Amino acid sequence: MPTVYVTRKIPDVGLQLLKKKHFRVDLNHSDQNLSEEDLKKLVSKYDAIITLVTDKIDRQILAQASPNLKIISNFGVGYDNIDILEAKRKGVIVTNTPGAASESVAEHVFMLFLSCLKQVIAADRFVRLGKYKKWDPFGFISPQMWGKTIGIIGLGKIGTFVGNIAYNGFKMDILYYDTSRSEDFEILTEAKYSDMELIFKKADFITLHVPLTPQTFHLVGKKQLDFMKNSAILVNTSRGAVIDEEALVEALKTQKIAAAGLDVYEHEPDISQDLIALENAVLTPHSASATIETRNSMSRIAAENIIDVFEGKEPFGLIKAK
């Protein structure tokens, strides 16, 4: 009977799939992350592991992997927590859950944009503190999102969903950048393929949807922030280190840009106190994908990836080392 360890509690749908296929499933019932020593023991003992994006599976941990470890199935779309090249060298397949979070994250992007634009946090506090005494035609006034220009950096599944919402829901003009063009996306949304400099100069709203790699580390720094309009809003739901957080804090402090909505942070879960103190930053706790539907889908795909490997099939979420 193949053995699977799940490093944190996840929705039951995936666990039941594994049990029906006669896997023995062991689970960390604690809400605490496993230690490095715990992870080393797991890779030396189990045939498959379902990891969370908070589990750092590096070279030192993979050095302890037994020949029986066939797959590390990451419960998430991102996989920068795993040393993919070292896993390949050890003969361990790595998978993720592509597409599972697209709709949920796209919803979250617009929630952050609109929360920043409409000053929702400040307006809510204003009412709760008893300051709302009479209607003011200029109170919390802002531009509207409708018909403005959105810049999308990274046109994967999430970026595509964001573009569809922007075009069909808000009649926005779309500028996008990716390593390759998408003619289908351009036809459906009238989007224009642009270089990043133009996007940062022209867009009223900018959203980031790129993986964290050596090439995308600090993709957005002082130079890009200086390009932006002082009325522009930046949203990041990808990975925190894609933005130079110190440069972002300075741009927000000096109102070089209007606002930022962040779901991820450069040194997560530690968040800069300077960032927390800013009124023009809306912050959420890496919860963009936190919907019931998405979590169930992630659990199912993570389990199916394992089942596929043990049945000799190529898993849906296979990560290919580059």
From TrEMBL:
* CDD domains, per database record: GDH (cd05301)
For this entry, the protein name equals: D-glycerate dehydrogenase
Q: Please name the InterPro entries in this protein's record.
A: D-isomer_2-hydroxyacid_DH (IPR050223), D-isomer_2_OHA_DH_cat_dom (IPR006139), D-isomer_DH_CS (IPR029753), D-isomer_DH_CS1 (IPR029752), D-isomer_DH_NAD-bd (IPR006140), NAD(P)-bd_dom_sf (IPR036291)
Give the UniProt entry's GO cellular component terms.
cytosol
A molecular function annotated in GO for this UniProt entry is: NAD binding
Q: Hey, which family's this protein in?
A: Belongs to the D-isomer specific 2-hydroxyacid dehydrogenase family.
Q: Which UniProt keywords apply?
A: NAD, Oxidoreductase
Question: Which residue intervals define the domain D-isomer specific 2-hydroxyacid dehydrogenase catalytic in the entry?
Answer: 4-315
Pinpoint the D-isomer specific 2-hydroxyacid dehydrogenase NAD-binding domain residues: 110-288
PROSITE patterns found in the cross-reference section? D_2_HYDROXYACID_DH_1, D_2_HYDROXYACID_DH_2, D_2_HYDROXYACID_DH_3
Q: Does the keyword Glycoprotein apply?
A: no
Q: Does the keyword Manganese apply?
A: no
- Fetch the SUPFAM superfamilies from UniProt: Formate/glycerate dehydrogenase catalytic domain-like, NAD(P)-binding Rossmann-fold domains
Q: What is the lineage of its organism?
A: Bacteria, Candidatus Curtissiibacteriota
